[in-house]
Amino acid sequence: MPGRTGYAAIAAHYRQKIQSGDLQPGDTMPSLRQVCDEFNVAQTTANRAFRMLKMEGLTIPKAGVGTIVAGPASNNIATRVALHAATGKALDDGETSQILEVGTTGADELIASRLDVAPGTPVHMRRRLVSRGGVPVHVSTSYYPAYVIAVTPELTQPTSTGGSRELAAERLGVEQEKVLEEVTSRHATDQEKAALGLTEKNVPVTQVVRTVTLADGRVVEVAVKVAGGSTILRWTTSLRPKA
After folding, report:
1. Segment 67-124, tens digit of pLDDT
2. What is the pTM of this model?
3. Residue 101's beta-bridge partner residues?
4. Cβ neighbours of residue 30 closer than 8 Å, sequence gap 6 or more
5. Disulfide: which of 58, 209, 212, 239 matches 182 by Cβ 3.0-4.6 Å?
């Protein structure tokens, strides 16, 4: 790759291959020597590129083998908000979103308490399957209060909007301010196993319940994301104090 010898460019090259599916989970990455020869760089440059991929959760070391591609990764909401702001879409390269179900349902206790409504209150739901490189990553079911649907009727249709929360926040004229993400483990339901391609009888999954609040204190979305055990859930939190 003439002219692309920086460690960031090398990392981007392999990141694209992983996200597109050219490199699959479990595949062995080239050795540092092979990277040096291909890109005509020093080993320190190749090592920095591989360290970047490891820090992003895209690769992991494997004893006796070297570096391998990690299982599919599911970005957190902060990453998706940043992606939408930069590109106009909340999905990363190589990701696809398939709407599985839309409709109105009575809020159960988990959803009702976070939307601050009584259990059984009708709320709108959208269930989608997100895949990366053709591999199912997670099933996510979003629940919206009536005032969100009033300004974003598109959410009642079985088509992707490219950023449902962003669209709702824009229509409401209020920015997204914070998200609470609660992580637990449980066994997958039959519906979740079918969507994620899980075949064992009792399959442990990771459940992330996120509650997104607007700057005016209203909740714009409560979502339940379910990922199989091979999926990496990634969070990046800044440790620098705010100016």
Report:
1. 998 876 677 777 777 777 778 777 776 778 899 999 999 999 999 999 999 999 999 9
2. 0.72
3. 127
4. 38
5. 209
Could you tell me the two tokens for 195? 């969507």
pLDDT tens per residue across span 56-80: 778 888 888 899 988 766 777 777 7
Question: CA-CA distance, 54 to 57, in Å (whole number)?
Answer: 5
Are 21 and 32 spatial neighbours (Cβ–Cβ below 8 Å)? no
- What sign does the dihedral 117-118-123-129 (CA atoms) show? positive
Residue 185: both structure tokens together: 């483990």
Percent of the chain predicted with pLDDT > 90: 60
For the chain, give me the number of helices (H) and strands (E)? 8, 10
CB within 8 A of 134, min separation 6: which ones?
A: 21, 96
Q: pLDDT tens digit string along 3-25? A: 457 999 999 999 888 878 788 88
- Give me the residues paired with residue 74 across strands: 233
Name residue 174's amino acid: V
pLDDT score at 2: 45
Rg over CA atoms, the chain: 20
Q: How many Å apart are CA 59 and CA 54, to the nearest integer? A: 5
Residue 230 DSSP one-character state:
T
